[in-house]
Design brief:
Main location: membrane
Oligomer: single chain
Organism: Streptomyces zhihengii
Number of helices: 9
Distance between the termini: 46 Å
Keywords: Cell membrane, Membrane, Transmembrane, Transmembrane helix
InterPro entries: ABC/ECF_trnsptr_transmembrane (IPR003339), Cobalt_transport_CbiQ (IPR052770), ECF_CbiQ (IPR012809)
Radius of gyration: 23 Å
Strand order of the largest sheet: 1-2
Membrane topology: Multi-pass membrane protein
Shape: flat
């Protein structure tokens, strides 16, 4: 199980209805995208961090380890805005307004990524997928997603075991040995994926699979006070952003 999935299963908000957390996380993400980067995205990022580290109870180290991956993509996407290719100033030069555009993009995407992480850190995938059938998603699509979600962790565990065995047999002592180990790892993972799928199909047939996976879903009621709090938080961010932009900046 990935660290972010383990954190979601042990989250303080695990028993809350996924709709509440979806409204909060996606609401913050949409707010970060729609509001001006300064000060809107900064306020969204501050509010999201406060919720994550406070009521949601996410450990700062876990949050940083998960956030540094999307942050790397944000930085990678912002860097090209700094430069202009061609023109009278040379083959590569600093773009007019490039630092401002890069900073705005970095602020907006970073704040939006935190909003998505808020939902991921508090809601396990296994709590969301079964409820998608009630939302109108076809049951076969949800069944395939549930099966792939399960197989993904099994394959990751198999790959980790194979890599450990290859390292114990000095499979990475040279470049040639590393390439051979990588090829063997890919072949083994491919064969084991088919084996896992075959065993899963046999297991489902033995349990009387009739085209629909029946999963026990923990019952949870949607909290109206929580949704009112989310609406108040989003409204406060929007109003504060507009006020700062009009009277202070």
């Amino acid at each position: 199980m990935l660290p972010i999935d383990a954190a979601a299963h042990s989250s303080r908000w695990r028993r809350r209805h996924p709709l509440e957390k979806a409204v909060l996380g996606l609401g913050l993400t949409v707010t970060a995208v729609c509001l001006p980067p300064w000060p809107g995205a900064v306020l969204v990022a501050a509010a999201t961090l406060t919720v994550l580290l406070g009521p949601a109870g996410v450990a700062p180290r876990q949050l940083w380890r998960a956030f540094r991956v999307p942050l790397g993509f944000c930085v990678t996407g912002a860097v090209p805005l700094l430069f202009a290719v061609g023109g009278p100033q040379g083959a590569v030069s600093l773009a007019p307004g490039g630092p401002a555009h890069a900073g705005q993009l970095l602020l907006r995407t970073s704040a939006a990524s935190l909003g998505v992480l808020l939902f991921a850190f508090t809601t396990p995938v296994s709590d969301v997928l079964p409820r998608l059938v009630r939302a109108g998603v076809p049951a076969p699509v949800v069944d395939v997603a549930l099966v792939m979600y399960r197989i993904t962790f099994l394959l990751l565990d198999s790959v980790a075991r194979v890599r450990q065995a290859q390292a114990a047999r000095l499979g990475a002592t040279s470049r040639a040995a590393a390439w051979r180990s990588l090829a063997g790892l890919g072949a083994t993972a491919f064969v084991r994926a088919f084996d896992r799928a075959s065993r899963l199909q046999t297991g489902l047939a033995g349990r009387g699979y009739d085209g629909t996976l029946r999963v026990l879903v923990t019952r949870a009621a949607v909290s109206r006070p929580f949704l009112c709090g989310v609406a108040g938080l989003l409204a406060a961010i929007v109003l504060l952003t507009l006020a700062l932009e009009r009277y202070v900046l």
